[in-house]
Design a protein that fits this description.
Rossmann fold, about 35% helix, 2 domains, 11 helices, alpha/beta, three-stranded antiparallel beta sheet, about 20% strand
């Protein structure tokens, strides 16, 4: 078959298609090039923004370095610059290596400090340079704000910490913890509790430079005694109330290795005869002049406008009347013990029958009040304590049932107080808890509830959520305290 030559018309059509293709490419290629270069600008902007965010956050978190505002500002600027450069080196992604360093400003306004970073880099153009557009500037600004913190450490110093070898590691972890906060801006205070609760270091901006410093006091803690958790928590809250700074982040960190087994209350003297032993009324005489008294009854557990005040806990000897409540004679002022049955030397051997025994509360105390010294109910989630059903004190909490104190009242006092604290609509405190050892594991329900941890049985989503951390033994204390420090700093941002 003879091949036919294309007609002139076909040759003209092919030429037109070729011309159209060339013209289309001339129009499309710049668009493609522009898309590529714009994509490069977007990539540079994204990476630059991430670097600025990292620098600003790191700078805001580094305010604890330095003892005054000038040194803390310098620390924040240096840290922010280093983090920025670690994430966006000079010349990164083909940007101009001679682009200027970022500007880093630190501003202070009330209880807030803000780190602001602004950076401009020159991004290269790969296609648009053929249209004489060789580069494009990319500018990004970012900032991070760090609020001041009012931190009260409420630390258990009971004897069980010494028995488990945890007292010294606990102190070391606490020292490392307070170093994460900023001298001159954050208020840090310390409350400890065992048989009594004590404001060891009132919250102060100079917690690192005071003499003694909070670190000095932590290092001198001695671990011995019972577990007066409600007293410690109440004093921690009192410190936040004393500062009264709604604009700051108000925090309590509550550490313990056991269940609270002490309550403090105004105990009424037994003035009526009863059907339970001892049946006779007490002849205690209160001779203190409360109008001129200067003793802080909430700090020492011993003074106030009442008949007898003291600390009460379960029996130290299970053979002591199979669960008789105890009130330590040495926790009641001598003037309040005139003609009292609890006049024996502190630490006298409990027999359950002696008429002169410091470990038998019901000899002089009529009943246990419904609330402790801070007005916190001793009834609640962990059970209702037993009450008298006959006699002059019918309906009142029994003073001769020690097991209720350990397993009900001590727990209820801490639990109810924690609810009161987080319901403070002005200060809006947040509580973090750390539990150590097997006893704390048994008590995890309470510690979840105190922190308003999302895993708590009474979690309240409308209030600030804290965090509970369980530590099996003292080797995990450093990590636990560092985790809490990180959580607090995160909330302050």
């Amino acid at each position: 078959m003879r091949q036919r030559n294309p007609s002139p018309r076909n040759r003209q059509e092919r030429g037109f298609v070729l011309l159209l293709t060339v013209l289309t490419m001339l129009a499309v290629l710049p668009i493609i090039g522009m898309a590529v270069d714009i994509g490069m600008i977007y990539l540079v902007q994204t990476r630059l923004s991430a670097a600025i965010d990292a620098g600003a956050l790191a700078g805001a978190r580094s305010f604890q370095r330095g003892m005054d505002l000038a040194s803390q500002t310098a620390s924040a600027q240096d840290t922010a610059s280093r983090y920025f450069r670690a994430n966006f080196p000079k010349g990164y992604l083909g940007t101009d290596p001679n682009s200027p360093d970022p500007t880093i400003d630190v501003a202070v306004a009330g209880a807030k400090r803000t780190v602001t970073i602004t950076s401009t880099v020159t991004a290269p153009m790969y296609f648009l340079r053929y249209l004489t557009i060789n580069s494009a500037p990319v500018t990004v600004t970012g900032q991070a704000t760090r609020g001041d913190v009012n931190l009260i450490m409420v630390m258990d110093r009971s004897g069980s910490l010494a028995n488990s070898g945890s007292c010294t590691p606990m102190k070391a972890a606490a020292v490392g913890f307070v170093d994460k906060f900023s001298e001159g801006r954050d208020n840090v205070g310390l409350v400890t509790f065992a048989r009594s609760s004590t404001k060891n270091f009132p919250a102060s901006l100079t917690f690192k430079t005071s003499s003694p410093s909070v670190t000095d006091i932590i290092n001198n803690i001695s671990c011995a005694g019972w577990t007066f958790g409600s007293g410690g928590l109440a004093m921690g809250y009192e410190e936040l109330q004393r500062l009264n700074q709604p604009g700051a982040l108000n925090v309590i960190v509550y550490f313990t290795d056991g269940m609270p087994n002490v309550v403090a209350a105004d105990f009424p003297i037994k003035r009526s005869t009863t059907s339970y032993t001892p049946t006779a009324a007490s002849s205690c005489v209160n001779t203190l002049n409360f109008l001129t008294g200067t003793i802080d009854h909430k700090n020492t557990g011993v003074e106030g406008p009442f008949q007898i005040t003291g600390l009460i806990n379960p029996p130290k000897d299970p053979a002591d009347n199979s669960g008789t409540a105890t009130v330590r004679e040495d926790m009641i002022p001598q003037a309040q013990r005139t003609s009292c049955r609890v006049t024996a030397t502190a630490g006298g051997s409990p027999s359950g029958t002696s008429s002169d025994n410091p470990d038998r509360a019901e000899m002089d105390i009529a009943y246990i009040p419904d609330t402790d010294l801070w007005g916190t109910s001793l009834d609640g989630y962990f059970g209702s304590p037993a009450r008298y059903t006959t006699g002059p004190y019918t309906g009142k909490i029994r003073a001769d049932n020690g097991s209720d104190l350990e397993f009900k009242m001590g727990l209820n006092a801490v639990d109810n107080l924690a609810v009161k604290i987080r319901h403070d609509a002005t200060l809006k405190p947040v509580i973090f808890t750390i539990g150590l050892g097997t006893q704390a594991a048994t008590d995890s329900d309470l510690l979840h509830r105190v922190a308003n941890d999302p895993g708590a049985t009474n979690y309240e989503s409308s209030y600030q959520a804290g965090k509970y951390i369980y530590v099996a033994d003292y080797t995990g204390l450093d990590d636990a305290f560092l985790t809490i420090a990180s959580e607090i700093l995160r909330l302050s941002m």
